[in-house]
Amino acid sequence: MSAPARDPHLTDPRLLDDETVLVRWRSSRATYWRDHAAMGAIGIVGAMVVLFLLGKPDQAPVGAIGVMLGIGVRAVYLASEQLSAEWLLTDRRLLGPQGRIVPLRDLAAVRPVLSDVQLVTTGGDKHLMKHMADRNAVIARIEAQRSKRKKAKR
What we know:
- It is built from three helices and seven strands; from the N terminus they run E-H-H-E-E-E-E-E-E-H.
- It is of the alpha+beta class.
- It has two domains: 19-26 and 87-153, PH-domain like (Roll), CATH 2.30.29.30; 30-82, no CATH class.
- It has a four-stranded antiparallel β-sheet with strand order 1-2-3-4, with no helix packed on it. It has a three-stranded antiparallel β-sheet with strand order 5-6-7, covered by helices on one side.
- Helix 1 (29-53) packs antiparallel against helix 2 (60-83).
- The radius of gyration is 20 Å and the shape is elongated.
- It starts with 20 loop residues before the first strand and ends with a helix.
- The relative contact order is 0.15.
């Protein structure tokens, strides 16, 4: 009996022969830009507070412009890298960008951090699934597969 044919859109060289991709998640463009807008707003307020505390309120507009430019340049510079990041949930592991591999059995915690999902392993390693469109759905899907895997092992 031959192995079932793999969908070419769901293949990855890191997959094991009998491993199946269940879900692919990519960073959300809208979430990426919203996160940077929020960072900019927080940065502007922070810069203005610091300038007022230093007794230089007249420099607050310059500080605000500097923060906007800094966050804007950062956002544009990192956009292609961040928006191409992809995570795959298989029947037994999470495969992430830059060769990250997290076996589901090694996950100690899966938690939300702003629009990101933080993966913490039993060994203490931490990984971020950044700029997820629906972080709660991602967490629920990972937890469901993790529970299913635990039940199958019994």
